[in-house]
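Dear Dr. K.,

Following up on our conversation at the group meeting, I've run the structure prediction for Pyridoxamine 5'-phosphate oxidase family protein from Clostridium aromativorans. I'm pasting the input sequence below exactly as I used it, so you can double-check it against your construct before we proceed with anything downstream. Let me know if the numbering doesn't match what you have in your notebook.
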Amino acid sequence: MNEVYEYLKSIGTYYLATSEGDQPRVRPFGTIDIFEGKLYIQTGNVKNVFAQMKKNPKIEICAVGKDNTWIRVTATAVQDDRVEARQHMLDEYPNLKSMYAADDGNCEVLYLKNATATVYSFTEKPKTIKF
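The predicted structure tokens came back this morning:
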């Protein structure tokens, strides 16, 4: 899990895929955090992405590394409604504090459960990490 965190954190922007009915939805994300041994993402509950994850929590993350590798993470997104989890994310990303507060009723954090990450390369065999 730490390797996946470091990979995504070093990139800055990754792409999160959800589904809306039979239509895939993909958008850029930039938050990634480890809290209490779990990998977390953050969004607002007024956004379509949050409604999509509530309805179908199966997600995928994809990103390209600076070394021309790429990663795909398949997981179930689980909402964590604790203020402590939200505050930890906001402390990791102080720039978000202009848009969110841990107790604002909008900030949401979700951890990745039953996750499988695979790092791909044009020159090496894929590496799989489960957490």
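Two things stood out to me. The CA atoms of residues 79 and 110 lie 4 Å apart. Helices lie at 2-11, 48-55, 83-92.

Best regards,
J.T.
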